[in-house]
Task: inverse folding
């Protein structure tokens, strides 16, 4: 039984590494602007947030330390994908905004990722996908309680 539990962790890790490997390859070949997975996640989080995105809140939202988020923001700013805007009500706060270039880059990654997902799901039924998501969500919920 112990071996099977360890196998779950190893198989989940292998699956994620393989998906990320293929995604990196595809985006490297097809994307207009090259992003790391972490840059994409940050850019997507900023883009999909309904309220002003405060720089310091990104560390909490993404579960990363502030210095890592700062480096990612600097990199995205260098690529003209985000820009910092000082909050008029509190000059200590920087709000993050996705630029038009950032929207273009984000769209490229979403299209590439969507095509990849369709390929990955080949031979998998809708029922099997529903079961997969049910299991993954339950395991994630259990882990969040720990």
Result:
């Amino acid at each position: 039984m112990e071996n099977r539990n360890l196998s779950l962790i190893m198989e989940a890790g292998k699956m994620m590494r393989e998906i990320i490997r293929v995604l990196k390859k595809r985006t490297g070949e097809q994307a207009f602007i090259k992003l790391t997975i972490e840059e994409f996640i940050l850019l997507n989080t900023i883009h999909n947030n309904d309220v002003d995105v405060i720089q310091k809140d990104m560390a909490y939202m993404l579960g990363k330390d502030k210095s890592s988020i700062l480096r990612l923001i600097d990199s995205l700013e260098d690529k003209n994908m985000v820009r910092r805007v000082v909050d008029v009500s509190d000059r200590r706060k920087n709000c993050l905004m996705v630029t038009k270039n950032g929207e273009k880059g984000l769209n490229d990654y979403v299209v590439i990722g969507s095509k990849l997902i369709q390929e990955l799901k080949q031979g998998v039924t809708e029922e099997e996908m529903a079961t997969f998501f049910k299991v993954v969500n339950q395991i994630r919920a259990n882990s969040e309680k720990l």
Observations:
- The longest strand covers residues 82-86.
